[in-house]
Amino acid sequence: MNPIQYMTVDQTIGRTPLVRLQRIEEQDNARRGNVLLAKLEGNNPAGSVKDRPALAMIARAEARGDIRPGDTLIEATSGNTGIALAMAAAIRGYRMVLIMPDNLSVERRQSMKAYGAELILVSKAEGMEGARDLADRMQAEGRGRVLDQFANDDNWAAHYESTGPEIWDDTGGRVTHFVSAMGTTGTITGVSRYLKERNPGVVIVGAQPTDGSSIPGIRKWPEAYMPKIYSHALVDRIEEVTQSDAEEMARRLAAEEGIFGGISAAGACCIALRIAREVENATIVFVVCDRGDRYLSTGVFPG
């Protein structure tokens, strides 16, 4: 009898479902011949799209000899990357130190600590820029190695090698538009590189918050902090979304579609619907970056 080959946790990352919206603006989409598809990245083991680059950044740094099990890794994060890195570090035997602003949801902090990570908080005023600066200072002091999701090519390469091909294959090459929140820009960079190699006509759309809006996972970076992995040439269009619209759409996706996603995912959905009102016979894919239960303490969802 042949032995059973069991999967390990890291082998469950990826191959997430691509599902069609069925109720929100259904009649208008049907009349125009459009299909809106949501890629459910919350189905990854640590609950977000960041599982893909988190494991890739650690595994590839290890393969290059840059790090080895037992080392201390440091990363500034707004939440999802930190949770994913904490999981990947636990799998591969690293000490993980995460730095994040103190105004982000308590569920994120608890998830990081559950995986054994050490958490350092900076103030809301310091924000992600302050978190990134502190990570660099700690590395300069010899307190660990910064993976630097913002400048690490292993970030976008994970999406080039997995997320992009999955979208292409699951749509049978019919994808016409891809919409993604822009945080570290790893997802949009890697997916754009892949899809445009297959069809240069695929329109890549980035979601950013309007001025004054605070949407976890979506950023409008000051130029000095713009992620080094980002290339303007890979994004055809940038659309802004308000915090109130994103939060309302998060509630609608859960109540009307059964898709319990986060606020950045809902922001991307708002923009996907905006595009659908402009085009016909389109296949529009947007990324549901994470799960909505990561935001219950924020009051966005009904109590």
Provide the CATH topology of the largest domain: Rossmann fold
Percentage beta strand: 15-25%
Structural class of the helices, strands and pairings?
alpha/beta
Order of strands across the main sheet: 1-2-10-7-8-9
What is the β-strand count? 10
Order of helices and strands: EHEHEHEHEHEHEHEEHHE
**Rg value:** 19 Å
Top-tier CATH class of the largest domain:
Alpha Beta
Query: In angstroms, what separates the terminal alpha carbons?
Result: 53 Å
Number of helices: 9
Biggest sheet descriptor: 6 strands, mixed
What is the typical, i.e. mean, pLDDT?
96
Q: Which residues sit in consecutive blocks of at least 5 with pLDDT less than 50?
A: none
Specify the CATH architecture of the largest domain: 3-Layer(aba) Sandwich
Q: Please tell me the total number of domains.
A: 2
- In percent, how helical is the residue content? 25-40%
Overall spatial form = globular
Cofactor: pyridoxal 5'-phosphate
InterPro entries: Cys_synth, Cys_Synth/Cystath_Beta-Synth, CysM, P-phosphate_BS, TrpB-like_PALP, TrpB-like_PALP_sf
GO molecular function, one term: cysteine synthase activity
Protein name: Cysteine synthase
What does the model show?
With 303 residues, this protein is α/β, with parallel strands linked by helices. The chain has two domains: 9-46 and 156-288, Rossmann fold (3-Layer(aba) Sandwich); 50-153, 3-Layer(aba) Sandwich (Rossmann fold), CATH 3.40.50. 39% of the residues lie in helices and 17% in strands. The chain contains nine helices and ten strands. The chain has helices at 26-32, 51-64, 80-92, 106-114, 127-140, 153-170, 186-198, 243-257, 263-276, and strands spanning 18-20, 35-40, 72-76, 95-101, 118-122, 145-146, 177-181, 203-209, 237-241, 283-288. Strands 1-2-10-7-8-9 form a six-stranded mixed sheet, sandwiched between helices. A four-stranded parallel sheet has the order 5-4-3-6, sandwiched between helices. Helix 3 packs parallel to helix 4 (106-114) and helix 6 packs across helix 7 (186-198). The longest helix is centred in the middle third of the chain and has 18 residues, at 153-170. It starts with 17 loop residues before the first strand and ends in a 15-residue tail after the last strand. The mean pLDDT is 96. It catalyses: O-acetyl-L-serine + hydrogen sulfide = L-cysteine + acetate. Keywords: Amino-acid biosynthesis, Cysteine biosynthesis, Pyridoxal phosphate, Transferase. It comes from Quisquiliibacterium transsilvanicum. Pathway: Amino-acid biosynthesis; L-cysteine biosynthesis; L-cysteine from L-serine: step 2/2.
